[in-house]
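Working notes for the structural subgroup meeting. M.R. asked for a predicted model of this chain before we commit to crystallization trials. I am recording the input and output together here so anyone reviewing the notebook later can reproduce the run.

Input as submitted:
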Amino acid sequence: MNPLISVIIPTYNHEKYIAETIQSVLDQTFKDFELIVINDGSTDRTEEIIQKFKDDRIRYIYQQNQGPSRASNRGILEAKGTYICLLAGDDVYYPEKLEIQYKYLTSYNKKVLFTWIDTIDDDGNILDGHHIQKYFNVPNRSRTELFNSFFLKGNDLCGVTVMVEKSTLIEAGLMHLTSIQMQDFYMWIKLVKSYDLSVIEKKLVKYRIRNQSGNLSLSPENSIRTAFEGYQLYREIFDDVSEDFFRLSFSDKLKYQNFQGADEYELEKAFLYLNHHFPLLQNSNIFQTLGAEKLFDILQSERILSIAISKYELDLPELYKLTKHTDTTNIQKQFDLQYQLKQSQSQLHQTQLELNQTQLELNQTQLELNQTQFELAAIRNSKFWKLRSIWLRIKHFFRLNSNNNFLEESPKDKNIQEAPKAYKVNILNKVEAERIRIVHVIPNFMTGGSSQLVVDLIEHLGHLYEQEIITSYIPCPPSYIGVNIYEYDNSASSNDIFNRLQKFRPQIVHIHYWGDCDTPWYHKVLSCVEKYGCIVVENINTPVKPYLREYIDRYVYVSNYVKKEFGYEKANHLTIYPGSNLEKFSRDDKDDIPDNCIGMVYRLEKDKLNEQSIDVFIQVAKKRPQTKVIIVGGGTFLELYKRKVNQANVENNFTFTGYVPYEELPNLYKKMSIFVAPVWKESFGQVSSFAMNMRIPVVGYNVGALSEIINNENLLAPPSDSVKLGNIIIDLLNDRDRRLQVGNFNQQRFQKLFSLEAMINKYYILYKELLEGK
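Returned structure, recorded in token form:
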């Protein structure tokens, strides 16, 4: 007698999991089943493990590797049961899975039934709240609601939970043979056009989230293939769909809900393609392409073209404009890459020249060092040095054993700079007994805008949220103390990072993202964050594209400019301006404002500055010899800037401070008449807002968010136009009344938009909303 249910397990290289998977089927409370295991050409110990099971209900079939669709179809055709269940070789059934589904199907006369899932990690631990779990655990819906969701959001029915009549699968034509990413999605789309696809809102399957993106559907390497299969699938999605079913499925998305006839039906399909973006394929252009292709085809008909013009206000010039921006072959991307390649080659050539020069200087330095070591050795072997050593020991003895100060140390050389003093982070309010835990992920924790944002959040919200930091670099000596910082550099293992997350158990991970050369480190850490599973907030504090992942709940941009240029107009993409401490960066009304000093405060690195950034200061110093220049900051450009200044013979006008402690910045700002931002890109420019609150005019190049910050185009020069910027600076230096007027305006604008209190309140609201939403 044939069994009622056939469970089919296609498996490929699942030696670590297959035994647990098979055992979960054998342990079912419902016993009338057969288990068909299709080994799709595994190269590990999968076959050996399968054959250890001795149970008459198991049928084992081996085939050369052909992919999951071929394996599933073979199992379906071999099956003797009335109902089919499909299970991957690394997932696990709960014991009552078959029993509950079978009773539901037979009681309600259904043909296709899914369930909810739990998510588990490689070792079988429950990943409660994982985003995949949230995605698949959807409520029961009507056929039209489900078809709408399939088109607009993708497949949110988990294939390994299905129980379906065998005859229904056979009638639908089995699994899509040439698809490897979306074979089950093809099947659900075919079935929903004729049958209800019901869902039991119970977790009856454990869906495994593999380490290193081992899940076939989740692997980043498969994104191109996923986009290709998605294009093929969505091109055919409306095949065999009646006008009435289409109308009911997309009533809120149609141009005209009461469209009439086949011609208007085809136009509505085209506009439906054009007017939405599938979130899982947001970096592809498949829907734009499909909509443009459909219009390109159907508007060949004069009859349809007439309808498009009269009813939909779409004529041929509009189509030409649309196809102009439908880049199906990524031509624009190729042009961009070619341009970037030329730029990189040019930069590489320049870097090689600088490297050669540096090597020459290094060789010279080595010669000088060798000479110095030779001379030092001669001194240490001299009689004088031996007598000096005895004298110092006597001096030390008397300092330890006498209250008299008759042996005084010589004053320190004033030209020797001490290391900057670390800033002590202090929580400003009384700490609550139970606090939500937050981890900040930031590639380095040096003095800078992103680091200061983290410090501000810890100091002002630390009483509500216990916060710690994961970074790849802590400077020595550290820039900040009084906060828990864990260093995992590029050589650290993912296991170490994941173990830290598990030990601290954060409810929120807050990423401070700027990409660039730190992207591989971000990827390593965030792979651990995805595996861990919690609320994720990503700050984009520089003008770069965000690190887009499905599990990230909010993207926070440092300015509207960055959001507009690199983000998306979506509800989970928002702007929060960095806030600055009004008490530290302020100037009393009685304080004298200087007339002849300009300056800037930046890390002297290529993320914002370039080799030419110093030119405008040199130009002003030459034209206006009474003007002093303060360059605050250190970095790889420091020595280059000094050489340029010396070559221009204006070194007496310049002060280079190198890196300075955060607390010293206000006093340096007070010396400035004008703050200059000679940047080539700018996401926000918190150093500019500091100057604004100190009633200092801010000038710079019109790039990035600078115009958004200062709201005065007359103080901005075209990018890299140092002559124009220099003239703006000189005109301001020569007009004290205008300079004071601009300074007062800046202070008012700062206090309205860029205060620390406003920023902290917005992050408090953001955290609260996310936690309540969870």
